[in-house]
């Protein structure tokens, strides 16, 4: 029997690691880190002042360093304000032209966080050193000048990267690249552990007649399941009735267990929040890409080229997913989780596009070609789902196209057109 201390320690540790991982993607954390480093650099330079040779201290005094610090502080304030404005404008532009769901990926962009952190950190450093010098702590001026030159070098390097990055930041292509990268990562993890390391729960799994049902303590979206924590907290099999990305209601069943177990510890292994997240939800990543295509197909935007680009990306994502090693890794066989199926992922990826692009021949043609290709793949589940979606997409297109000639130009379900 597992110890009670192990029961109580697993979930809090998992939640702490999850919180730290999410905190690491926050914009303010990296900015605050660079600001703290700037303060430490100023203090270290003043504390190490006795190590500076007298001749160097006489040659490079506070009067030589103060103008440089003043210029650096004023310029970094302007650059930081400008960069923050550009970032907000880019985020709003991407949100309006693609989908609001991509904003999460843009906010956690490491390059943006690093550049803004360097700019604001340089401002804090220059302002702190300037104040200390004016207050009379002017010893160690050569060291402060050396640190200042290093800070200026990092600022110049960050500016060069920032200028190059601004050419694509916030564009539709940038949003597509971010969404595709996140989807590829999620699908790769799903292929290896479709049930998050637990035993996949299908229709053939039968629960015992006598089980204890645990209900949710709050309403929201199930974001993350701590499968390892469930295995450690329970003294028997555990059946998870919901999966990441699905809504749960307070008082609705979420777990079924056999044997004794601490209900609070078991329920704490389910992280419930207000919104869907990308951590354990591969269908959500495909939904984000599909939403970009739907926005492009709206009458207000009317950009079928973006929808075609999304279809191409979705096609290669699901194709690569089907070609990956299908061997599942089950680390906790006593926990049962219902995985996202190929049918559901194809539905999330292509159903909105089939509906919204039905009246455009070029979009319908590209979609049917993609589904025909996936229907010929080696993964039986994905192939069957693609063929079924292909029939729906064809029905949508036949109902949406106004001319019989356009309907006859739709590709057949068995071969790819010459364009591809």
UniProtKB/TrEMBL annotation:
<feature type="region of interest" description="Disordered">
    <location>
        <begin position="396"/>
        <end position="420"/>
    </location>
</feature>
<dbReference type="Pfam" id="PF10011">
    <property type="entry name" value="DUF2254"/>
</dbReference>
<feature type="compositionally biased region" description="Basic and acidic residues">
    <location>
        <begin position="396"/>
        <end position="408"/>
    </location>
</feature>
<keyword id="KW-0812">Transmembrane</keyword>
<keyword id="KW-0472">Membrane</keyword>
<feature type="transmembrane region" description="Helical">
    <location>
        <begin position="115"/>
        <end position="137"/>
    </location>
</feature>
<feature type="transmembrane region" description="Helical">
    <location>
        <begin position="143"/>
        <end position="163"/>
    </location>
</feature>
<feature type="transmembrane region" description="Helical">
    <location>
        <begin position="27"/>
        <end position="52"/>
    </location>
</feature>
<protein>
    <submittedName>
        <fullName>DUF2254 domain-containing protein</fullName>
    </submittedName>
</protein>
<dbReference type="InterPro" id="IPR018723">
    <property type="entry name" value="DUF2254_membrane"/>
</dbReference>
<keyword id="KW-1133">Transmembrane helix</keyword>
<feature type="transmembrane region" description="Helical">
    <location>
        <begin position="64"/>
        <end position="88"/>
    </location>
</feature>
């Amino acid at each position: 029997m597992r110890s009670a201390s192990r029961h109580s320690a697993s979930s809090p540790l998992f939640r702490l690691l999850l919180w730290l991982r999410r905190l690491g993607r926050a914009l303010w954390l990296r900015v605050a880190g660079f600001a703290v480093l700037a303060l430490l650099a100023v203090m270290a330079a003043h504390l190490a002042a006795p190590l500076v040779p007298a001749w160097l201290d006489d040659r490079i005094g506070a009067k030589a360093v103060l103008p440089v610090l003043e210029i650096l502080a004023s310029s970094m304030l302007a650059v930081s304000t400008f960069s923050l404005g550009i970032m907000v404008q880019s985020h709003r532009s991407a949100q309006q032209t693609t989908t609001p769901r991509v904003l999460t990926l843009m906010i956690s962009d490491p390059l943006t966080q690093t550049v803004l952190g360097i700019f604001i950190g340089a401002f804090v450093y220059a302002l702190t050193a300037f104040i200390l010098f004016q207050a009379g702590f002017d010893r160690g001026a050569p060291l402060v000048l050396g640190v200042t030159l290093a800070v200026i070098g990092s600022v110049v390097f960050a500016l060069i990267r920032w200028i190059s990055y601004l050419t694509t930041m916030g564009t539709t292509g940038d949003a597509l690249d971010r969404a595709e990268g996140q989807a590829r990562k999620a699908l790769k993890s799903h292929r290896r552990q479709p049930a998050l390391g637990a035993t996949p729960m299908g229709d053939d799994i039968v629960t015992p007649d006598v089980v204890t049902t645990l209900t949710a303590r709050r309403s929201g979206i199930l974001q993350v399941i701590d499968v390892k924590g469930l295995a450690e907290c329970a003294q028997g099999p555990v059946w998870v009735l919901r999966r990441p990305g699905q809504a749960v209601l307070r008082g609705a069943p979420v777990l079924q267990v056999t044997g004794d177990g601490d209900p609070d510890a078991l329920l704490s292994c389910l992280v419930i929040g207000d919104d869907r997240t990308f951590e354990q939800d591969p269908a959500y990543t495909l939904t984000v890409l599909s939403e970009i295509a739907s926005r492009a197909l709206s009458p207000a935007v009317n950009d079928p080229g973006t929808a075609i680009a999304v279809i191409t990306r979705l096609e290669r994502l699901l194709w690569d997913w089907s070609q990956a090693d299908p061997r599942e890794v089950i680390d906790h066989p006593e926990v049962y989780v219902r995985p996202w199926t190929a049918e559901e992922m194809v539905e999330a990826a292509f159903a909105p596009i089939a509906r919204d692009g039905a009246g455009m021949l070029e979009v319908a043609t590209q979609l049917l070609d993609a589904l025909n290709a996936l229907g010929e793949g080696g993964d039986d589940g994905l192939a069957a789902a693609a063929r079924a979606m292909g029939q729906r997409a064809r029905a949508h297109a036949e109902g949406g196209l106004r001319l019989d000639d356009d309907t006859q130009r739709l590709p057949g379900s068995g071969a790819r057109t010459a364009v591809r």
